Amino acid sequence: MASWSKGARDPVSATARADTGDGKYLAVITGHGQYGYDRRWQLTTRRLITTFKSAQDQEGIAAAFSPDGKTLADNFGAQTHLYSLG
Question: What is the pLDDT of residue 39?
Fold first, then answer.
């Protein structure tokens, strides 16, 4: 999907992404070592808002926001998680 450098660290590869319909938030699933992470970014400020640590030894497959942007779903292999964002 995409990769970018985090300074002196190894590049990070995104395996899935989703954005809210209003363009305010972006969720990016990345792999890092044994775990995957689902990170939510506020696009207007370019700030990392939330990080969810997801399934061990599973690749992130998909991410999606609910239509109202208040729930984030991600899928890592056989596990699907729903996160209430308020």
Answer: 86
Residue 66: C-alpha distances to residues 2, 12, 70, 71, 83 (Å) = 23, 26, 6, 5, 10
What residue type is 54 in one-letter code?
A: S
Which residue bears the tokens 């699907």? 80
Q: Which of 14, 11, 6 is nearest to 59 (CA)?
A: 14
Q: What's residue 38's pLDDT?
A: 82
Residue pair 41/47 in contact by the 8 Å Cβ criterion: yes
Structural domain total, the chain? 1
Range of the domain at 11: 2-84
pLDDT band at residue 3 under the 50/70/90 scheme: very low
Residue 66, helix vs strand vs coil: coil
